[in-house]
């Protein structure tokens, strides 16, 4: 059985044909989104890309993981900062008419947790918290096998829990959100803020000042790298401990580019969370790195179809 997953971004979108039995992506393409051309043209290009990857194979439906506030019951993008004119746009219905197939739309962070449930570390788990640490921090929660979305379908904004009161300002307007400290964007900002005080830091001899450069430097004993890494781990640990107390998951999955830091992130994170949770929660969960890596977007989108059908 095949499904199509579309990982929709403001600059590019990726489309893949997924074998639901093996979780293998049989074919995939990446196209420019070209938001400026208007939503109708973007959707037509998405339809063309779906036809290209399906290549005559029958598939049961299409899932789209989209940034923004999504009415997943009706396939409508209510608002997305990456798509200024997509206010209350019926993305699912428009693409469905072009393909004559069912199309389901979900927020990209929710798609991430669904991908973990169907194809990733959350397979076999009914209670999952998933965090993706990239440009921002997104999150999704599955409880009793069902996606938690809240009254208006926009709940579980895990990246916007406040973990550092009076901390740096977040893009949402608040101060000290998890996203303002543990995202790739925040890690780069902290490095640049430290440059005057630590001009000799190994971070600034890297090809690019980014999260990877920071964690590589920390691994090598660089003081600024270690300070930033510790701040990121502390913020994450507070957030994760809160999520464990609230949702009681059996597994916490962390993905996105920042998660590739590996053990320098995960070892102290597990230790700090263990100290922060109440005794009754101590052995109820595991914290793992997502195995889906660059395919998380397509597999998450494909999972939206499986969750609905």
UniProtKB/TrEMBL annotation:
Q: Which UniProt keywords apply?
A: Kinase, Transferase
Pfam families in the record? ROK
InterPro entries, per database record? ATPase_NBD, ROK, ROK_cs
SUPFAM superfamilies cross-referenced by the UniProt entry: Actin-like ATPase domain
Give a yes or no for keyword Cell division in this entry.
no
Q: Does the keyword Zinc apply?
A: no
For this protein, what is any one GO molecular function term? kinase activity
Q: What domain of life does the UniProt record list for this protein's source?
A: Bacteria
Q: Which family does it belong to?
A: Belongs to the ROK (NagC/XylR) family.
Provide the protein name: Glucokinase
Taxonomic source organism: Fervidobacterium gondwanense DSM 13020
Q: What lineage is on file? A: Bacteria, Thermotogati, Thermotogota, Thermotogae, Thermotogales
């Amino acid at each position: 059985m095949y499904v199509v997953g579309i990982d929709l971004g403001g600059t590019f979108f990726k489309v893949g044909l997924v074998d639901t039995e093996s979780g293998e992506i049989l074919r995939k393409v990446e196209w420019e989104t070209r938001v400026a051309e208007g939503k109708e043209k973007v959707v037509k290009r998405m339809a063309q890309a779906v036809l290209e990857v399906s290549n005559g194979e029958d598939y049961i439906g299409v899932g789209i993981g989209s940034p923004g506030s999504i009415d997943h019951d009706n396939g409508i993008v209510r608002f997305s900062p990456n798509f200024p004119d997509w206010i209350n746009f019926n993305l699912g219905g428009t693409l469905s008419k072009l393909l004559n197939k069912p199309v389901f739309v979900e927020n990209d962070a929710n798609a991430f947790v669904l991908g973990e449930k169907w194809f990733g570390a959350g397979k076999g788990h009914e209670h999952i918290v998933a965090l993706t640490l990239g440009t921002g921090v997104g999150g999704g929660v599955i409880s009793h096998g069902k996606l938690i979305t809240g009254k208006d379908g926009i709940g579980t904004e895990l990246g916007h829990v406040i973990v550092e009161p009076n901390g740096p300002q977040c893009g949402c307007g608040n101060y000290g959100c998890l996203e303002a400290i543990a995202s790739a964007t925040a890690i780069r900002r902290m490095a640049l803020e430290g440059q005057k005080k630590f001009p000799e830091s190994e971070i600034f001899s890297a090809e690019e000042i980014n999260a990877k450069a920071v964690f590589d430097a920390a691994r090598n004993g660089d003081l600024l790298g270690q300070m930033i890494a510790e701040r990121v781990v502390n913020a994450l640990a507070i957030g994760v401990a809160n999520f464990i107390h609230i949702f009681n998951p059996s597994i916490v999955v962390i993905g996105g580019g920042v998660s590739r830091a590996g053990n320098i992130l995960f070892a102290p994170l597990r230790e700090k969370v263990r100290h922060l949770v109440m005794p009754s929660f101590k052995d109820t969960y595991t914290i793992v790195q997502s195995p889906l890596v660059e395919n998380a977007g397509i597999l998450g989108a494909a999972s939206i179809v499986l969750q609905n059908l």
